[in-house]
What we know:
The chain has 254 residues and is α/β, with parallel strands linked by helices.
Amino acid sequence: MNIQGQAAIVTGGASGLGEATARELARLGAKVAVLDVNADLAKKVAADIGGVAVQCDITNAQSTQDALTQAAQAHGPARICMNIAGIGTAKRVVQKDGSAAPLEDFARVINVNLVGTYNVSRLFAAECAKLPPLEDGERGVMMFTASVAAFDGQVGQQAYSASKGGLVGMTLPMARDLAQHGIRVCTVAPGLFLTPLMKQLPEPVQQSLAASIPFPPRLGKPEEFAQLACHIITNTHLNGEVIRLDGALRMAPR
């Protein structure tokens, strides 16, 4: 699909990997809707790229439907959906005081990362399926954002790894399900990237993490994630695939 002139939705588009993707899409000529729970940050990014900011809680069906409607009113029906919103946590199953990890923490991560992504995707797909087909019968493309933790999660990452593993497992059946409508589905599983969250860590910790990456021995750049996301859009034969973007990193147990 040619990105130029297409309406695109980016969840989590106000910061980190989502912001980088929103900016790259706009640079390539897309009309970008920046969806995020943080309305102020979303407005800042949207203003910079000439897009529209929409506050959205992806775990809430009505909030998400309203956000997609608002985006469509601004830019027309979207053919591109970049699911990048997500959260993380680390909790050992048995805590230091001997108590069990809180169930609420596990459920929250699953709800945002996995259920939230499905929520956005189902609503996007239902509208995208109504659009006239483009070349090769394609109507749209969506991307999930998993993590290398889906494959080699570390100690304490049960919730995060399960949520990202769920996205990996959902990729192929979603692609098969939506093939009849000409909608492609791919997932990117990033490794260690220099996001705002990573920048909060002490510099020695950042350097240690970067040194664990075989090549290049540095943290990933959000722009590199964005470049891959946009390549998925333009390469019509990419479908049902999960792509690791990690510099050959394999996470240690801790």
